[in-house]
Structure formats: structure tokens, C-alpha cells
Amino acid sequence: MSTPFSGITPVSFLQTFVLELMNVREQAGPADAQVIERIGCAAGKFFEDSFREEFGKRDALTPEEYADAILGLKNHIGGNFSLASSAPGCIRVVNTACPFGDGVKNAPELCHMTSSVFGGIAARNFGYAKVVLEKRIALDQGGCEVCVYTDRESAKDRPGVEYQADRKSDARAIGELQADIEERMGRIWRQYGTRQGRHDAGAGPLIVAQSPAMRQVLRAVETVAPTPATVLIQGETGVGKELIARAIHALSARHLKPFVAVNCGAIPEGLLESALFGHEKGAFTGAVEVHQGYFERAEGGTLFLDEADSLSPAAQTGLLRVIQEGELERVGGRRAIHVDTRIVAATNTDLEMAVREGRFRKDLFYRLNVVRLAIPPLAERPEDLPQLVQTILKRLAQRYDRPTATLSGKVMEQLRGYSWPGNVRELENILERAVLFADGGMVHHVELDSAATPLAAESGKAARRQVMAQAERTLLEQALRRFQGNVTQAAGWLELTPRAVYLKLKEYGLDASRYRA
Fold this sequence. Notes:
InterPro entries: AAA+_ATPase, AAA_lid_NorR, HTH_Fis, MetOD1, Sigma_54_int, Sigma_54_int_dom_ATP-bd_1, Sigma_54_int_dom_CS
Strand order of the largest sheet: 1-2-4-3-5
CATH superfamily of the largest domain: P-loop containing nucleotide triphosphate hydrolases
Helix content: 40-55%
CATH topology of the largest domain: Rossmann fold
Strand content: 5-15%
Shape: elongated
GO molecular function: ATP binding; sequence-specific DNA binding
Organism: Methylogaea oryzae
Number of strands: 14
Keywords: ATP-binding, Nucleotide-binding, Transcription, Transcription regulation
Protein name: Sigma-54 factor interaction domain-containing protein
């Protein structure tokens, strides 16, 4: 039953407001996937300052003072928290009544906001904290039980969210990097759009990187972009490989020069050499004039070769010469032409397998594979989905000159449960169809491929591979945490060679140094 109007208080008003904020957050496209934690950490700083001022605390809080602060905070706003235990390195609190009442069951993410308050205050005072939600009223478990670990060793095998004194600065660095990439890509896109006479030149490409995997990709882009290194991007169709290539170009010293994208798989084999390297007049029937290929058109800039596995043997030979010697010969030509073009290649297949099968030159593979970036499929980046949805809906509104559509809760749940075989490109197509046929501003229905829904409906082989890969990654992370990033010790524990562990770390995009104390 809702609160009578005459019974509304400032606290109940705020509670209702926050609950509704949580209900719409999944459609609202937060600035990043940790928005709940950021709100909690920021609020925790304010509450901590209030506690310090009232009780005259200037130094770091002791565990006892910390417990007083978080219990007092929760009980002041209507909870029923108490201290269950306070062993060295761990503080456990319990409660039987949630400050948000039964409404919290409709917004269980509020528990993460509470844990962020606890974790942020603990990290600021003890340098480290891991918050483990043992029981939650929001999940109908009869009460809440929260453990705050302040000792890293005690917490290493516990599932929970970690907080560190520099956590906020790390998030800020990622935010600044993403903003820098977006600003530079937007600037290039606007210049391109103006030259092409595009009316939507202001839209530009946008990389959504709320998931840890995509944030790691952005860090790699930042590192490799200023260098002349050749880059190989691997990922399923529709994950945004060209977008990452454009980001590399935008952050490089070549950003004022052309970015030329070529889909090698879309060019007939007989025309591929001419398209890439150009041809001389009279080189073949129909060659009535000199033709500059994509390499020459990308002079000084970046050439993006998508579906590089589709290159013919002759084109592979020519590409290898360009990479090794910086020169090419047009088809029918007799002189070498110097070119200064950076190559970013992409594939959705296993190039190493193609090498073993003799379909791709080994020496060319090694030349392309100087730096490899793996773009995870959308199904493995659930944190990116809400902002991707909101970004696409905003752009569709701009394209069709109508208000931004909103998805019903049921539709959002459908999208979350879908396996996305076509990745971001499929998401764009599905949302565009849904918006075009939506009744008013609310989308109540989307057409999904029933053969791919839900995730569990994938082929047994694919599902088994995904589960085994996730289990292997989890085991690797557990070993790295246990031995604080020491690969040799982790390898011994896993009964593997250090080389095998290093290969697995590379495969899963893990950095052992991030686990060192």
C-alpha cells in the first residue's frame, strides 16, 4: 500500500525518489557502469565528514570508530543495524529492517550503493576494503548481513567488491581517456562529415566502455596509438572493430591525415590487388587511366584492412612488401612507389589456424600481429548494454527527428537475456526496427531471433566452450590473487608451466602486475 499524502515526510519522499531512480537507471544509460558505486562513495565521503565534525575526529578512524560511523548512519535513516562481530581485519554488521522498506525488492542495486558507502569510508581510512553482501532483504533472504574486510589477505578468496584509496583516481583516469578519445574522434568525424556534406556530421562514432574488458581495450589503444606499430584487431562480426581502429588513428600523430577503411572480403579476388595497390594505364582490359589504390589514398594516415583473412595469396605478398619495405608496385607498373601508411588489420577468424592450414602466410601474420587487441562479444559485456541502448536510442531520435524512445522493463529484460550473435550491429538494427514501429514514445516489443534466445539456447558446444573459458579465467584470477601476481608461483599451484600461464594471461587479457600488492 502506498503512503497516504498526509503521511509523506522528507525521508519518505527521498526514498521514493531514489527507488524510482534505480528503476529507470537501466534505461537511462549511466555515465559508466559503476554509477551506483560512485554515488555511494561520494555520499560516503559526505557522511564521513559529518561524523568527523560532530565527534571531532581528525586522524584515520579506528575500526571501532568506523563501525560507529556506519551503524549510526544507517540507523539515523531508519535501518535497524547492529554490530555482529569485529574481528581483526573484518567488521560484520546485520540488520532486520531496510531504510527503503519493501520497495528495495524492486531495486536491489540499492544494496550496492549501501556497500559503496561502507567500502569507500573503509578504503579512505584503512587503505583497502572488500565488501561482501552475505544476506540481503532485497533478495528475500530475511535480513541483511554485510562483511567489510579491511585485510587483503583475509578477503582474497571472498566474492565481493574491492575498494582502494586510489580507486576514484583510477575511475577518473578512465573517464578522461574515454572523453579524450570521443573528443578527437568527434572532431575527425565532423571534418569528414563537412567534406562529405553529411547533415549528421555532429553525431560521430562513440565507444561505450563500461565493462572491464572494454576499458582494458581502451587502455591498450592509448598505449599503442602513438606508436607506429601494426595492430591486429580480433573479434566477432559487429563488435566494433572499425571503431577501435578509428580510435587508434584519432590518438595517433596521423590523425590529421586520411583514415581509409577497406573490407577485403567484399572485393572480388581478381580486383583485390588493383584496389589495394592501384594499377597503371593499360595494365588490363578496361584500365584506361592510372588508378591510385587504397594504400596511396591513405598516404600519411591509417589504412584499416577489415577481414584481412580474405586476402588473396598475391595480395598477401604485396602487403608483406609494404610492411617490410614501405613500398609497392601498381598492377602493370615497373617502378616502386614509396608509401607511408600505418596498417591496422582486423579479422573475425582464427588467423593462426589459417596459417597452420596454409591459407595465410606465416611471415605476414607475424608482421600484422605486432600488437593484438581482442574485442569481446556483446554477450560478455553486459555492463555496456544499458548505455549502448541509450546511445542508440538518442541517435535514432536525432535521425528520425522525434523524441527519444524509452524501453519498457520487459523489453530491457529481453535484451539482457539475449545472446547477441550479431553483437552491437544487431542491437542497432533491432532497436531501429522497434523504434520505427513503436506506439508513442515507449517501446513494448522487440523482434529477437528465437534461435539465439536465451543465452542458454546456444549450441551445446558453444555454451560448453563459454563456460569452460569463464571457469579457466576465474581460476587464473584466483591464482594471481593468491600469489599476488607472481606468475611462477601461480603456475606451480595450477600445475602448469609459467609459459603456459603467460599464454593464458594473454588470451584472456589479464595483467599479472595488477594483482601485485
